[in-house]
Amino acid sequence: MPQSSSISVSVPPTTRAEQALVFLAILTTPLQSRYPAVAGLSTSFLTFVVLAIYVIVNRSRLPLTLLNNRIVQCCGVLLLVGFIVEPLHELASYFEHSRILFMVGGAIVVACFCRDRQGMQAALLGFMAGGMCMSLMLMTTSYGSLQLADASDFGSASAARIAAHTGNPLAGNLNAYAYLTGQGAIVAAAFLYHTKHTSRQVILLGIIGLCVIGTFLPVSRSGALILAFTLAVMLWKSRLPRHYLVVLAFLLAIFIAVTVPDVVWSRMTLSFDDSGHRPEGRVRVFNAAMACFSEYVLLGVGRGQFYSNWGVIRGFGDYYTAGVHNAFLQVWLYWGLLGVLAFCNILFAAYRSLPRFWIDDPLACALMGLAMSVGLMTLFVHNLYAKEFSIGLGLLIASRAWLWPKGIAVPRSIPQTVSTLQTPIPQMGVM
Q1: For residues 211, 213, 214 and 215, what is the CA-based torsion angle, rounded to 10 degrees?
Q2: Relative to the CA of 192, which of 58, 211, 225, 361 has its CA 20 to 30 Å away?
């Protein structure tokens, strides 16, 4: 085996300008649908382009230090599998490959801006501010309509959901809005746990309440489930007495029951029974995936072929092919068993990037909550290159590369200086 040489690079602390840039980039991500696209590109994508240009011009050596990061390497393995398997099928398409490549690039850029505690905190505050803004917009545009709506089953609740958000300036993916507002509540909850100032506690409680309501207003089952599960884990892992946990959970349940419109609860169901009526879309695509499992179990069918008539014929849509609302199943359909194993390897690397004893550090606690929410999102979305994944992976890359390189969260009482860290840049050896 050839030995790889390395050189050391001093990692400078983030500047106020860099902290402001990453804060604004994450803040505007939930609001991208409010602004018109430029040359077919979303404002969020253009924002990340600006960040990338800044890194190339001012911090060009930092991305090189991340090439040996486990998450980056695992993403490269997934791309390699995709490039090998896709040409084996008809109508080969490399759209997904290019978007995943952009996602990984965005993650590296985000990591460069979160290389110390100040940069990471700015990013986390961006999540909280974005969740607040999204929640306020949802409350002012749809809360009244949902409060007046009357629904007794899933179908009527879905119709009320569409009616409440028709003409809404926040035109876009309602499930994504629920995820993003929930992440604002998760970050605020992590900061609340580590805050001793009464005034800050009151403010953070208000933010949590606002974001919790906002999570339910898109009437998204997956968004509500992700928020509830993540907050439950954070509470359980906290060092609060168990009777405090019971009281907190009880108060939160009462708050949700009182403030969330009744129509929301009529849609919080999932039935696999298709007798006598047409099953919902999520169930239809799951059934279709199970029916043709033998066709893609080993080598998949390719991204291009899946979105052709192949998908429509096998029940993944009526007039066009729809995704399967599950990232694992989607990548399995694309690139078979090797693809889904490579995807699982990315998630395992992300899990290993979380520091131990995260509950003792406010930033690590918030990062764990975000990582859990993003991981749970893979069970409900089929978009492998979502910006939420890019930002989440970027935070985890920075976590392992710079903030907690030993995988252990530093207690708050112990100062940590990032500027003294030395990170190797791998050099290509001769094979």
Answers
A1: 90
A2: 225
Instruction: List, for residues 300-336, the tens digit of each pLDDT value.
Output: 999 999 998 899 899 898 788 888 999 999 999 999 9
> What span, in angstroms and rounded, lies between the C-alpha atoms of 76 and 106?
14
d(CA 169, CA 189): 29
Q: Which DSSP letter does residue 417 get?
A: -
Cα(181)–Cα(204) distance, integer angstroms: 14
- Answer yes or no: is 198 within a domain: yes
Token pair, residue 47, equals 């924002």
Residue pLDDT, tens place only, 143-194? 888 888 888 777 788 888 888 877 666 667 888 899 999 999 999 999 999 9
CA atoms 164, 286, 299, 391: torsion sign: positive
Task: Count CB-CB contacts under 10 A for residue 257.
Answer: 10
Residue 107: is its pLDDT beyond 80?
Answer: yes
| Coil, strand or helix at 356 | strand
SS3 267: coil
Residue 160 in domain: no
The candidate with the shortest Cα–Cα distance to 169, out of 143, 144, 147, 138, is 138
Report yes or no on 87 lying in a domain.
yes
Q: Which domain holds residue 16?
A: 9-144+176-265+321-409
In tens, the pLDDT along 200-240 reads: 999 999 999 999 999 999 999 999 999 999 999 999 999 88
Q: pTM of the entire structure? A: 0.88
Cβ atoms of 90 and 305 within 8 Å: the answer is yes
- For the chain, the straight-line distance linking the first and the last C-alpha, in angstroms and rounded, comes to 8
Q: Of 53, 72, 76, whose CA–CA distance to 64 is shortest? A: 72
Residue 333 near residue 324, CB atoms below 8 Å: yes
Residue 427 counted as domain residue: no
Q: What are the helix (H) ranges across 217-280?
A: 221-237, 242-259, 262-266
Q: How many domains does the chain have?
A: 1
Residue 2 falls in which region: left (phi positive, over 0), alpha (psi -120 to 50) or beta = beta
Distance CA 340, CA 125 (A): 33
Closest to 127 in 3D by CA, of 15, 23, 232 = 23
